[in-house]
Design brief:
Rieske Iron-sulfur Protein; three-stranded antiparallel sheet; mainly beta; binds FE2/S2 (inorganic) cluster; globular; four-stranded antiparallel sheet
């Protein structure tokens, strides 16, 4: 059974609406994206050939990999072409001007 473990990552003002930024959280490279003042966290590693999604583009909720154009919904981690491919998503929350990311099983 996994326990929720929200870790402080950043001040809210370091991630502007409509942008994304890479953070290392508990040893994991997590890409945070902000749209409509919601924060979403996904694994930074593209499952195709491992490129950094942080170097890609964010269009609303969709991040596109810079290497070969695979795209993912930051809300669900779902690949936009194949339902069989998705990336890890991390629950995020904004509280008192700070961004927290849930890394299950981290104490
Ligand atoms: S490595 Fe991301 S699309 Fe190929």
């Amino acid at each position: 059974m996994s326990e929720d473990s929200f870790i402080l990552v950043s001040n809210e003002n370091e991630l502007k609406n409509g942008s994304m930024k890479l953070f290392n959280v508990a040893g994991k490279n997590i890409l945070l994206a902000r749209f409509n003042d919601q924060i979403y966290g996904i694994s930074n590693r593209c499952p195709h050939m491992g490129c950094s999604l942080a170097n890609g583009k964010l269009n609303a909720y969709i991040v596109t990999c810079p290497c070969h154009g695979w795209s993912f919904d930051v809300r669900t981690g779902q690949n936009q072409r194949s339902k069989d491919i998705n990336i890890q998503v991390y629950q995020c929350k904004l509280q008192d001007g700070k961004i927290y990311v849930n890394i299950p099983d981290v104490i």
